[in-house]
Amino acid sequence: MELQLSYFLIPVLALLFCFFLHAHRKKGKTKGLPPGPWKLPFIGNMWCLVGSAPHRALRDLAREYRPLMHLQLGEVSAVIVSTPQMAKEFMKTHDLAVADRQQVLAVKIILYDCEDIAFSRYGNYWRQMRKICTLELLTAKKVQSFHAIREEEVCHLIESIQSSVGSPINLTEKIFALLNVVSCRVTVGRRCKHQDILIQQIKLTALLAGGFDIADLFPSYKYLHFLTGLRPKLLKIHHKVDQILDDIIREHRENIEIRKKENIGETEEDLVDVLLRLQASAGLEFPITSNHIKAITMDMLSAGTETSSRTIEWAMVEMIRNPGVLEKAQAEIRRVLKGKKIVHEVDIQDLSYLKLVIKETLRLHPPFPLLLPRQCREECEIEGFRIPVNTKVYINAWAIGRDPDYWNDAESFIPERFENTSLDFTGNSLEYIPFGAGRRACAGTSLGIANVELPLVQLLYHFNWKLPSGIKPEHLDMTETLGATAGRKENLLVIATSNS
Ligand code: HEM
């Protein structure tokens, strides 16, 4: 009899336990953190990110937990936004509450304790510097004033490709080097000495700024920073770059003095000149220090090089995979340029199909697939979920750009889909946010697009493109690099043939 009772009692107790557990979880759903996968002790959800690029792993998880998912990544509490409506909540409605940036070890070291613009905390300093971007550094006029630099450097690229017509070239490296030189000339007025060291630092920033390094997921375990070798490696390269930046600033100051002494009138200012002029002027709420100038210089060099070069490369890859698009883009360019030997930016203003190609490239391949991660400044409630202070916020722009609920045939490269739409780069429509949205949206959109357009036009105008023998377009590997930016893992090897 006792035995029979326990047979009866055990299932009832188990049922009651399940009921309470379920009720508790439901309660958590409406008042607590957003839902998410099972968390293991200590590492939490880190296991969810093993094996593929974070934006892909997060999109796959979001199939179950969208629109908003919570992950515990080691010591870091993070939410992942995966739909346009939810992105609107975070980047428009509650933009101010999530306007901080996550400050990870690499950017703290490389960017002078985040004294730049992209990673600085939201506050008066950031507001001042953002205003300087809008009114001085990255205005349409300023971007336009650099057209001769872009034209000259793209000419060099075309000449170098002409000398290798018929043989395979590494287009990835050529485009990256081009954009790095253009960014150096725009920012510091000349090609940078020690370009290799700068490129090394830019690549490290791109790799680590997303905050998925083990040292960033366990920030209180300081010894991890040394154990993994990351901190010493970062400090070593930062030390070298710091000396390069010191030299650049010293040279600029000397040149300013010479110009004053010799009464040389106004010359075209590079971005460091602008910052030094503002530093010397009274009237800034936050005086600009040399560290600020160095950190912002690194922002401009990294943003100018990495994002635009990745975009050009993806555009070329997608067009090679979609020969119909390539032909259409080339036909438009060749019709408009009508056999011109030298191409200027004014000649390419009306290339409407090319603009669609760039938009479509940025939809499928936003250079920052998770944007630049943000951080909650104050607790907020979004769609009934509690988002505590300091929660990291990842907006999966890559997943949003491929969401089949918003995009027909979402995985295909179809530039025409942007025809007759109002979708642009401003972040006003949250289903298309390659430049982010809200207060912390990209400050360099016009420069970024100018950096992409001219090289792409010229590559398509002067040459026809094919893959080395044995490689079929449909077999091109589309795997992305890991890190804050998503480039193509494999370098793009292609053969240019002359268009004449
Ligand atoms: C194709 C080119 C580019 C793309 C796709 C791009 C994309 C982005 C994205 C996604 C963000 C973060 C937005 C957010 O969190 O909502 C960002 C921020 C930023 N970008 Fe760009 N970017 C590009 C080019 C540039 C260039 C050329 C510059 C300047 C030289 C630049 C300067 C910045 C700065 C300063 C920020 C930080 C803004 C802030 O935190 O207030 N970007 N960019």
UniProtKB/TrEMBL annotation:
<dbReference type="GO" id="GO:0016705">
    <property type="term" value="F:oxidoreductase activity, acting on paired donors, with incorporation or reduction of molecular oxygen"/>
</dbReference>
<protein>
    <recommendedName>
        <fullName>Cytochrome P450</fullName>
    </recommendedName>
</protein>
<keyword id="KW-0349">Heme</keyword>
<feature type="binding site" description="axial binding residue">
    <location>
        <position position="442"/>
    </location>
    <ligand>
        <name>heme</name>
    </ligand>
</feature>
<dbReference type="Pfam" id="PF00067">
    <property type="entry name" value="p450"/>
</dbReference>
<dbReference type="GO" id="GO:0020037">
    <property type="term" value="F:heme binding"/>
</dbReference>
<keyword id="KW-0560">Oxidoreductase</keyword>
<keyword id="KW-0472">Membrane</keyword>
<dbReference type="InterPro" id="IPR002401">
    <property type="entry name" value="Cyt_P450_E_grp-I"/>
</dbReference>
<keyword id="KW-1133">Transmembrane helix</keyword>
<dbReference type="InterPro" id="IPR017972">
    <property type="entry name" value="Cyt_P450_CS"/>
</dbReference>
<dbReference type="InterPro" id="IPR052306">
    <property type="entry name" value="CYP450_71D"/>
</dbReference>
<dbReference type="GO" id="GO:0004497">
    <property type="term" value="F:monooxygenase activity"/>
</dbReference>
<keyword id="KW-0812">Transmembrane</keyword>
<dbReference type="GO" id="GO:0005506">
    <property type="term" value="F:iron ion binding"/>
</dbReference>
<feature type="transmembrane region" description="Helical">
    <location>
        <begin position="6"/>
        <end position="23"/>
    </location>
</feature>
<dbReference type="InterPro" id="IPR001128">
    <property type="entry name" value="Cyt_P450"/>
</dbReference>
<comment type="similarity">
    <text>Belongs to the cytochrome P450 family.</text>
</comment>
<keyword id="KW-0479">Metal-binding</keyword>
<keyword id="KW-0408">Iron</keyword>
<dbReference type="InterPro" id="IPR036396">
    <property type="entry name" value="Cyt_P450_sf"/>
</dbReference>
<keyword id="KW-0503">Monooxygenase</keyword>
